[in-house]
Write a structure and sequence with these properties.
Thrombin, subunit H; 2 domains; single chain; mainly beta; seven-stranded antiparallel β-sheet
Length: 249
């Protein structure tokens, strides 16, 4: 059960959702807070076009192009010195709120699925290859061939990224790298899964280095095909874990 005041995105953190007032609007609004019952949008540059109680459709657009229309009404307007914002309450039936919350969470830039661990007998091999990018610039698909690569074992995986364990000295080569190409040899796929990602975590764990990589759909060639391969593996492992009574993380 999703509580109505539970944050679906973390306030002040990137979330990957674009929000528009109206299905045909092309003007993106800044999302400040998103819960299971309402969305709060910034009014820094404009006043809301609705009066309190007036109905509107909120259009949520994810980075992968999937969108969602949600009926809502203007519930609260904040006009304090430090906050100019409007809160739109979702007009959905109580029985539909759980499904809506799960859909919004999946569209956001949090974990798209629970993490699953590989079996102890079969840990897929992962190869990280750095993508050289000038500091302050975004990586491109035409980046030159990377200079550094490292291989290791998959620790866990979700639709949105992986945790990977490599040799202790790996970070000496990756200390200046933020963007990487991941190559994952999953037992459920005949071809390696290749995803461009950004390193979100680096940590020493005993005698290894642990990396957390977030996949970047916009920069990954054939993203849908690679995502399907990840989804197949994740769903298989979820089913295996359910049989053993182990809850996904």
């Amino acid at each position: 059960m999703v509580k109505t005041d539970q944050f679906l995105v973390t306030p002040g953190r990137p979330h990957g959702l674009s929000v528009f007032l109206g299905r045909d609007s092309t003007t993106e609004r800044e999302l400040i807070v998103l819960t299971a019952r309402a969305a709060t949008l910034s009014d820094q540059r404009r006043r809301p076009p609705q009066a309190l109680g007036q109905s509107v459709e909120l259009r949520f657009l994810a980075r992968n192009g999937e969108d969602l229309l949600v009926p809502a009404h203007l519930e609260i307007r904040h006009n304090a010195e430090h906050l100019q914002a409007s809160q739109y309450a979702f007009d959905v039936k109580p029985a539909e709120r759980e499904a809506l919350a799960e859909r919004l969470r999946r569209l956001s830039n949090q974990r798209v699925a629970f993490r699953v661990d590989p079996t102890w007998k079969e840990r897929p091999t992962v190869r990280l290859t750095s993508i050289p990018v000038a500091r302050g610039e975004a990586p491109t698909l035409t980046s030159s061939v990377a200079e550094q690569s490292v291989e290791g074992e998959l620790v866990n995986i979700s639709y949105s990224g992986i945790s990977f364990q490599g040799p202790r000295d790996a970070d000496a080569s990756f200390r200046d790298s933020d963007f990487v190409e991941t190559r994952i040899d999953l037992p459920t796929s005949s071809n390696p899964v290749r995803m461009v990602g950004i390193l979100r975590l680096r940590a020493l764990v005993r005698d290894h280095v642990r990396y957390g990589v977030e996949f970047l759909p916009d920069l990954t060639l054939n993203y849908a095909e690679n995502e399907d391969a990840v989804a197949k593996y994740v769903m298989l492992r979820q089913a295996d874990m359910a049989k053993l009574g182990v809850a996904p993380q």
